[in-house]
Specification:
heterodimer, A: 368 residues, globular, B: 865 residues, mainly beta, Immunoglobulin-like, Ferric Hydroxamate Uptake Protein, Chain A, domain 1, 22-stranded antiparallel barrel, five-stranded mixed sheet
Chain lengths: 368, 865
């Protein structure tokens, strides 16, 4: 697929992309969807179980609430799960997966039994370093127009074992320190024609948390021959107020099995399908859970067993080498609604606690 | 109008009216040019004269007569001149030189029957000798090995390698049928009067660019040929069919035939009667071409200028061909002109080409060299994409052919072919691939009735893909297929039998992949996939036998064997491949044909993308991958009307294939050392009906075809992963049930012509999701069944307008301008449908992609000298 992606660019030279509404049949039955993660962290682990829905169905997924769920390890120990909310099942007791042990998930729904394959809990892997690099990236809009945009890419350095292949999945969250340049100003509230909801003399410093959403970043050492690798890009962000003072990404590394890696990679391939004839035609993604009966009950999902390690780093605004003023933290005065005082600014320009996921309480991990 | 190259007698059959000959004539001429007299006779008495213009150049007439019959009047006109004449109904007057024998070349006019009179009618003889040469109409190259059947005598003659022949026949009427493997058969009726010399051209002279209709179309080969499903595409047809960016394309012509389709624009290869693109044997002068496409499928890799004709078999395949299941496309390169240096070329928006041919030693050795170089950057520049604008592409090909007549019985030819593509994508990746074909062929005559053809060929296809998008992962992947083939074919005529027999052996060496670092910073692990070696051989014998005048049969068997594979999985397979065709002529212009074929394929095309890419794999059979075997039954009814002016046919086929290759869901073929684990083999089933109506002659000609066909596969293995769609038959990627193809050509005069091509087919099968689900917040669509849906139907109209630069018959350079418009009404034909998460919706949204969503205008200048 990688090899053929460039062909597609050529093919698309006089291309036209339009939304399309195919006339799709309703599925006779919906497959069971299982999403389970077991790590070496000592906690109550969870499993979600629901049913897929017709692609034209805009309602919520139907949760499966009456299942019997447990995890069994290679020594025969059983960890029961109970239904706790909606589609979620939580282990009755907190427990940590043991490195080197294997686990499987067993689900019974209406007398139909589903089992995952035994998955080994891989050893913890370490992130050697977290890096932040700026680069001008070309961002293409839906209309195909490209614009240059300064981005900060957060990447990691990894040490790689030479005797085996490793499969990683990454996740991230970040915290940045935001300072309100116009703390206490009323220009933001004038827009709403109301008094400020809080005192104006609170701290002008906030800590804003962002985390990944619908994020999938995989890495495999398959086909590589090295003891380490540098700058494996994890994600990139715009260097706006995030880098006003200090930005702190935390990268989570899941050391997963090849089975899980293949599952996630299939999903990644499907999501990057460009519609080219040079793409592999789409096909069902089944994961490592199967129906044990003799019928054709379909189950899709993954019982992911992974060791987890996290690493945090702090980057000053010198990374982006840019001064921050109202202009580049989106606090430029702008035209307000008709009848309101002009100009106005967003609320968070006058009180940083109005930024999403913001607090003025310094997190424990924060290093000044 | 005079027809100067109709110098011999033309009969007209079917109707008789001699009214013009019963007129009386009264004229007076005083030293008037004979040509003027003839014009006056034509005008006044409604006659049509046939003669050769140079005969009359200095002839003048002094005559006076009153109330004479036309015959007597002509005697007066031609008195003391070295001409005789013949009157033939309804109004033809044929002038003949008095020598009684002719060394002139026959050509054939499509508007009347192919009937000629040879020799001096004033001589009273019992028998006469017809001697001469059979040559290609296009460039007068000898056609050794042409079988001339004299029907009434039930005897056959074979021309010598220099194309010469000599027939001793009773004076009277005879029907001759000429057959040459690379030419379309034609019949000619001869009225033999005395000894005569005749050069027979199997192709009309096409050096006049605007005379595009090929004479052989007048022949009833579609009715009379014993085997079914054979088409011979001549170069003029190839050039007539409007094409993408105006580039004459061999595949475009093939695609207009019933039973042939492709899955989309920009996809290389063709699908024939429900077969995959890897099931077609594509040859250039006996050498296999593994990738017949340039620029990922936009253009054919054959330079149309260098092509003499394309022999295309999709039904009954002669025993000398094997190794692929679906079809044989035999591209024959022209031999160089042995008499004079000539050439052709063209300048287009995408490429330019030049061909030069001529004698190395006059009358015995010739060369042909052709080069085509493309500059598709112009095309790439059309894209609204800066990355593409920063990309560069090149493709080109070259042909070299040397043809040498050792003596009158032996001929040797050497053919070299090279194609190359390079595409550099914005400093991130580069594709580099191409074919190389070399062959040497010896044609000879062992005995008076046995010809042989021995050839050795070497074919190579290689590709290199460099990924330099990230220094750490920069890599280079190289792969190569090598093939060495020795082939011997003998043809023996024994009474009413035409035997073909021989043997072939091919050695394969495949390097599936060598993966290396492209830069010092790279950390990719260099890898080399184990090479594969194998030998495929075959013995074959076939016989065409006319049991009666109306019943002919072609039967044969090819016994093929294979040994090889990759280390540890080597295997040996062998088996018979029977071939049978029966032709029963229900009338002189209609026939019923029945055919059966078994084909075996030991070398497999491995590609799990919807369309073939230049970096796909070829793989030999081994203990895990069995040979694919196809059995096809065909039945057809063929009927011609109005002296073969209209050809109609209805053909039906049913094909079953075993061990058809398919792929496990999510198969990863890239650098996979155990690729067998990703392949599954199933059963294929294809059937269909092909209807064709064709007008072969006249200023307006063309064809309309309709095909209904299905192509299905069933994969029902032992393991759950080896079962696709619950193990029932489902459509292949190229199952397109309805296909309509129409081509029309209108020749307004010798200078202007208009061609149009229309294509319609059912949308190809695709997998659509019926369900959606979420895991870790990621919306994922579920493609439960493979190929359950179809993209919208496809249709497209293309036109081209050809304008000759001059009406002069004698010109140093003949040239034309060709203006073409592809996708005239700018239909957004759907190339594919895919699903992506919409920024405005939680659920994935379907998108349709059209890749050539607007009309594309192109112009090219073509010339011959």
């Amino acid at each position: 697929m990688i090899r053929s992606k460039y062909i597609f660019y050529l093919i698309a030279l006089t291309a036209c992309v339009e939304k399309f509404n195919p006339d799709l049949d309703a599925a006779d039955s919906q497959p069971l969807i299982v999403d389970a993660l077991l790590t070496n962290e000592n906690k109550q682990h969870s499993v979600t179980i629901n049913l897929a829905k017709d692609i034209s169905d805009f309602s919520q997924f139907t949760p499966v609430i009456d299942g019997t769920v447990y995890v069994e390890d290679s020594q025969g120990r059983i960890f029961d799960y109970v239904h706790t909310a909606n589609d979620k099942y939580t282990s009755v007791v907190a427990f940590a997966g043991i490195i080197g042990s294997s686990y499987r998930l067993v689900i019974d729904v209406d007398g139909q039994r589903y089992e995952s394959s035994f998955e080994e809990l891989m050893p913890e892997a370490q992130i050697a370093e977290i890096n932040a690099n700026t680069a001008v990236e070309r961002i293409s809009s839906e209309t195909g127009e490209a614009t240059d945009e300064l981005r900060v890419t957060i990447s990691v350095d990894l040490n790689l074992p030479v005797d085996r292949e490793v499969y990683y999945r990454f996740d991230w969250n970040s915290t940045y320190r935001a300072r309100t340049l116009d703390q206490g100003s009323t220009v933001c509230w004038d827009e709403r024609n109301s008094d400020p909801p809080i005192n104006l003399d609170v701290s002008a410093t906030c800590y804003v948390n962002e985390s990944s959403s619908s994020f999938l970043r995989l890495f495999s050492s398959e086909g590589l021959q090295a003891t380490g690798i540098e700058d494996v890009a994890i994600y990139s962000v715009e260097p706006n107020r995030r880098f006003q003072t200090k930005y702190s990404p935390e990268i989570t590394l899941f050391h997963i099995t090849k089975t899980a890696f293949d599952f996630w990679q299939a999903i990644e391939n499907q999501s990057t399908n460009t519609g080219s004839l040079f793409d592999t035609p789409p096909s069902p993604i089944n994961g490592n859970i199967s129906y044990t009966g003799s019928g054709n009950e379909r189950v899709i999902g993954i019982f992911e067993v992974a060791s987890v390690t996290r690493k945090r780093a702090f980057f000053l605004n010198s990374v982006v080498n840019r001064d921050f003023d109202n202009y580049n933290i989106d606090c430029r005065p702008s035209a307000g609604p008709p009848g309101s005082p002009q100009p106005v600014r967003p609320l968070f320009c006058c009180d940083c606690r109005f930024l999403p996921n913001s607090t003025d309480v310094k997190p424990d991990f924060w290093e000044d | 109008m005079k027809r100067p190259h109709f110098y011999l007698f033309l009969f007209l059959s079917g109707f008789c009216c001699q009214a013009q000959f019963t007129n009386t004539a009264s004229r007076s001429y005083s030293d008037v040019p004979l040509t003027e007299v003839i014009k006056e006779f034509e005008s006044v008495y409604g006659l049509t004269f046939y003669f050769k213009a140079e005969w009359l150049e200095s002839e003048r007439v002094i005559a006076q007569f009153n109330d004479l019959t036309i015959a007597d009047a002509l005697n007066e006109v031609l008195r003391d001149k070295n001409f005789t004449f013949l009157l033939r109904p309804p109004n033809y007057v044929v002038l003949l030189p008095d020598e009684g024998s002719s060394t002139e070349t026959l050509t054939i006019d499509n508007s009347v029957d192919n009937r000629v009179s040879i020799g001096n009618i004033n001589l009273d003889l019992d028998q006469g000798t017809i001697s001469g040469y059979v040559m290609t109409g296009e460039d007068n190259l000898p056609l050794g090995g042409t079988v001339i059947t004299v029907k009434e005598q039930a005897v056959r003659y074979v021309t010598l390698p220099d194309g010469s022949f000599e027939l001793v026949l009773p004076v009277g009427n005879h029907e001759l049928v000429l057959h040459h493997p690379t030419m379309v058969d034609y019949k000619i009726s001869i009225s033999l009067n005395s000894n005569g010399k005749v050069n027979l051209l199997m192709f009309e002279d096409v050096t006049v660019l605007d005379e595009v209709i090929v004479s052989t179309q007048a022949v009833d080969q579609n009715v009379s040929k014993t085997i079914t499903g054979q088409e011979i595409i001549d170069i003029q047809t190839i050039k007539s069919v409007p094409a993408f960016f105006g580039e004459a394309d061999v595949f475009n012509s093939i695609l207009s035939l019933p039973g042939v389709s492709r899955i989309g624009e920009g996809s290389s290869g063709i699908n024939v009667r429900g077969g995959g693109v890897g099931q077609n044997l594509i040859l250039i002068d006996n050498t296999t071409v593994y990738n017949p496409a340039h620029l990922f499928g936009f253009f054919s890799s054959f330079n149309a200028d260098a092509v003499n004709a394309v022999n295309f078999y999709r039904g009954s395949i002669p025993v000398e061909y094997g190794g692929r299941l679906s079809s044989v496309m035999d591209v024959q390169v022209k031999s160089g002109n042995k008499e004079k240096v000539s050439g052709s070329g063209g300048v287009g928006l995408v490429n330019s080409r030049i061909l030069v041919e001529g004698p190395i030693r006059r009358d015995s050795t010739s060369f042909l060299a052709a080069v085509r170089l493309a500059y598709p950057d112009y095309m790439i520049g059309l894209a609204n994409d800066e990355d593409l604008n920063n990309s560069a592409a090149f493709f080109g090909d070259a042909n070299l052919k040397i043809d040498h007549l050792l003596n009158t019985r032996n001929r040797i030819s050497f053919n070299g072919y090279l194609s190359r593509d390079r595409f550099e994508f914005s400093d991130e990746a580069e594709y580099n691939y191409g074919n190389r074909a070399l062959s040497i062929k010896w044609d000879g005559q062992l005995t008076n009735n046995t010809l042989f053809e021995t050839s050795g060929s070497h074919a190579t296809y290689d590709y290199q893909f460099d990924d330099v998008s990230e220094p750490q992962f920069s890599s280079s992947l190289e792969a190569r297929v090598n093939q060495l083939t020795l082939n011997s074919l003998f043809q023996t005529e024994v009474e009413s039998h035409a035997l073909s027999y021989g043997a072939s052996v091919t050695g394969f060496a495949i390097n599936p992949g060598k993966y290396t670092r492209k830069s010092p910073e790279s950390i990719v692990a260099p890898t080399t996939i184990d090479s594969e070696k194998g030998v495929e051989g075959a013995f074959f014998i076939g016989d065409t036998h006319s049991l009666t005048n109306s019943l002919s049969i072609y039967g044969g068997i090819r016994y093929s064997f294979f040994s090889g594979g990759r280390d540890g999985l080597k295997a040996t397979y062998h088996g018979p491949e029977p071939r049978l065709s029966v032709n029963y002529k229900t009338t002189v212009s209609s026939s019923l044909k029945l055919g059966y074929n078994r084909m075996r394929q030991y070398v497999h095309f491995i590609s799990n993308t919807a369309a073939a890419t230049p970096i796909d794999l070829w793989k030999l059979s081994n203990t895990t991958i069995k040979p694919q075997v196809a059995d096809q039954v065909t039945f057809g009814y063929f009927r011609n009307f109005r002296a073969n002016m209209y050809e109609t046919s209805a053909e039906f086929f049913y094909k079953r294939t075993t061990d058809l290759i398919d792929y496990r869901n999510g198969a990863d073929l890239f650098l996979n050392e155990n690729i067998e684990d990703e392949l599954i083999q199933g059963d294929g089933k294809a059937y269909g009906m092909e209807l064709l109506v064709k007008k072969t002659e006249g200023k307006f000609n063309g064809w309309v075809s309709y095909t209904f066909s299905r192509s299905l596969i069933r994969v029902d293995g032992q393991e759950p992963a080896d079962v696709i769609n619950e193990g029932v038959f489902f459509p292949t990627n190229f199952d397109q049930p309805h296909n309509v193809s129409a081509f029309a050509s209108v020749r307004f005069n010798r200078r202007f012509s208009l061609n149009a091509n229309f294509t319609y087919n059912t949308g190809r099968p695709v997998s659509y999701p019926e369900s959606v689900y979420e895991i870790r917040g990621i919306s994922i669509v579920d493609f439960a069944e493979r190929n359950e849906y179809r993209i919208p139907d496809y249709h497209r109209l293309d036109i081209s307008f050809v304008m000759g630069t001059t009406l002069k018959r004698v010109k140093k350079i003949e040239a034309n301008w060709s203006l073409s418009l592809y996708n005239v009404y700018g239909r957004n034909n759907v190339y594919s449908v895919y699903f992506k998460n919409d920024v405005n919706s939680d659920d994935p949204q379907a998108y349709q992609l059209s890749i050539i969503a607007r009309p594309i205008l192109a112009i090219s200048y073509n010339f011959k000298f």
